[in-house]
Amino acid sequence: MTDQHHDDALDLDDPAGAPEAGETDDDLVVGADDDGITAPDASVPQTPEELAREQALRAGLSEFELADEDLALLDGGEAGEGEAAPAGPVPVLAVVGRPNVGKSTLVNRILGRREAVVEDKPGVTRDRVSYPAEWAGRNFTLVDTGGWEVDVAGIHARVAEQAEVAIDLADVVLFVVDATVGATSTDEQVVRLLRKAGKPVVLAANKVDGPRGESDAAELWSLGLGEPHPISALHGRGTGDLLDAVVEKMPEVSAKGTLRPGGPRRVALVGRPNVGKSSLLNKILGEERVVVDAEAGTTRDPVDELVELAGRTWWFVDTAGIRRRVHQTSGADFYASLRTQAAIEKAEVAVVLVDASVKMTEQDTRVISQVVEAGRALVIAYNKWDLMDEDRRPYLEREIEQDLVQVQWAPRVNVSAKTGWHKDRLVPAIERSLASWDTRIPTGRLNAFLGELVAAHPHPLRGGKQPRILFATQADTRPPRFVIFATGFLEAGYRRFIERRLRETFGFEGSPISISVRVREKRKR
Asked: Are strands 303-309 and 312-318 parallel, antiparallel or unpaired?
């Protein structure tokens, strides 16, 4: 049984790392370990007592029914098949084509539900354009490009511009053509882009409702993209064979979001539009590398830059601002948002820039959530802090404490992107977050910690029964992921309590952590 822990706090204990209400930050980097207490070093080898405890608890597990993935986890310390940590972001499938060829109808057919808005005219605005999808056991992200704003007067140039962006972001392209109309000049323009991009392409000949229409589909061989797959998105005819062809061309992991092994650590600068990301990157670089303008959304493409800071080389990525909701964006802004998500997934740590001069917005919270959900290390940088009045700062600290209640474990740096004030504080914060992201706790030490914790704060009784923790192990790092074997379900609040105590004891400053539970019963005699 697996269950995650990101819910409201449980009042079993005070959350770790809450900043003092009146604390100002002219000179501080605030984090989870600012109370001066030195946490145990998880990298120190296990003591003989800890090793003996681990062996005894593991021996006790032999009395319980364990699945093959449990044994694999216990033997190798790695995630078993039933609960594998994702090797990377899932592949992206972009559905492209000119307006009104049935792209959104096909998207709904693939999803098995009505998600994309469908209307018999081109240029209909969608309420969502990106969806998680699955076929034949393969998960992927489905991007419906049907929401493009089409300038009818310049349709060829407009479609080509948008198609080029969608193709660049995709791992596989599903090109939809109306078989009843045949290949148009716009279709041929997109074909040229597809050949130039070199991406795998599957050609769908839509609106083939019966055997008569298959001859129309056969004429699309002339596009030079290989076999046209005759389908009817409206009725579902041929869509299974089409998806089989798509899955065959998909990589296991998206090439757009794969962490690069080795080399400089990757840092993504993210935040809502016009918060100062480009200004901060320019100040770090010491040159005007990125276009800066008062108008929000100047940056469209992430700009990768090797940066020398504190004697180390880093990859910095300046990303386009993330809008409030992906479905509220259109055209270039929507694709900028997709690029930003890809930058987060390729990064190891994200620096979320927040404007201290205004109250934290839902957009800011959403950006932080994206980083946490992607499992990346996190640093929060408050920009324009040098402009804050001394009398205002204590009140702002209290606001920040409330706004960041769910991520009090993230280090915070107060900076000025315009002047470069406190930019030297970023590297120590980034290094602490990355160190936590890489931390592994020895199994014996982890179980000794849990034994003491449960003895002092047992799980509440539910229905007259009390679940017992049998064994725990750290299944993975980057981010740290823990698996607990128990005799019963551990409530979400109790898992949050365990997480807070883990952070108090071992640090994990700047890194999200997850705790999952596997309920196992005793073997029947």
From this structure: antiparallel
Residue 508's closest CA among 31, 20, 2? 31
Residue with tokens 């109790």: 494
Q: What is the pLDDT of residues 301-356, one digit of tens each?
A: 444 667 778 788 888 875 654 433 444 444 545 555 666 677 787 789 999 999 98
- Side-by-side strand order, sheet with 469-476: 469-476, 481-486, 514-519
CA distance 282 to 277: 9
Distance between CA atoms of residues 28 and 19, nearest Å: 11
pTM: 0.64
Whether 371 shows a pLDDT value over 80: the answer reads: yes
List CB contacts of 176: < 8 A, sequence separation 6 or more: 95, 96, 97, 101, 102, 103, 106, 204, 206, 233
Question: Taking the CB of residue 298, how many other CB atoms lie within 10 A of it?
Answer: 16
Residue 243 carries which side chain, given as an amino acid letter? L
Within 147-233, residue ranges assigned H as helices are 155-169, 185-197, 214-218
Identify the CATH assignment for 265-434 out of 3.40.640.10, 3.40.50.300, 1.10.287.130, 3.20.20.70: 3.40.50.300
The tokens describing 180, both together, are: 């009843």
- The CATH number that domain 33-85+440-519 falls under is 3.30.300.20
Beta bridge partners of residue 94, listed in sequence order: 143, 173
Domain 92-249 and domain 265-434 have a common topology = yes
Query: pLDDT value at position 322?
Result: 43
DSSP string computed for 153-175 = GGHHHHHHHHHHHHHHH-SEEEE
- Residue 79 clears pLDDT 50, i.e. is over it: no
Residue among 131, 123, 117 nearest 148 (CA): 123
SS3 labels along 75-141: HHCCCCHHHCCCCCCCCEEEEECCCCCCHHHHHHHHHCCCCCCCCCCCCCCCCCCEEEEEECCEEEE
Question: Which tokens is 489 given?
Answer: 């379900």
Sequence-ordered strand ranges (E) for 247-290:
265-270
pLDDT at residue 489 is higher than 80: yes
Q: Angle at Cα 178 formed by Cα 177 and Cα 182, nearest 5°?
A: 90
How many CB atoms within 10 Å of residue 426? 23
